[in-house]
Sequence to fold (172 residues):
Amino acid sequence: MTLSSRPAAVALVLLAALAAGCSTSSTGKNGETTAADPSGAAADRARAYMRAVVAEDWSTACSLMSAEERTACHERHPVPETPDPGGPALGPVLLDRPPVRVPGTSAHPDGWGVIVSYTVAWPGKRTLTERIALRMTDAAGEWWVDQREDVADSDLTAPEHPALSALSRVVR
Fold:
């Protein structure tokens, strides 16, 4: 090997090492999880849905719901809503705890239970943390919101995962 080819060989070895270290992992760019972990992909989609809900972007939110729930969502929100400028300040939508498998019910298929949270701060009042449980179901390789329930204080102290508790309640 000549001296002029040595830097190229070193660069090639470094690139190979970098490529080996960049294989599929459970955490990707910007903290989002990759498809290697289905619960992570479901959680990413759940956060996208709740970000749209919090922003009152119902066109996007409804489009992230399962086929069974999508039509009803569009019927409840037929026209874009204008956010209230005097409304509360809303914090970012965060994953509250790791997703958990949830069994199917007579009304919903099995999937992943995801709890997301965000803060709500009305002017002159204390900041509240809202927690929402979402049932995420897989259809055609994509994750869809099939059920949405508020997480009650009793869900947070239940013996099972709070998502299981919230998503198993019969609220209707």
Q: What stands out?
A: Confidence is low (pLDDT under 50) at residues 7-35.
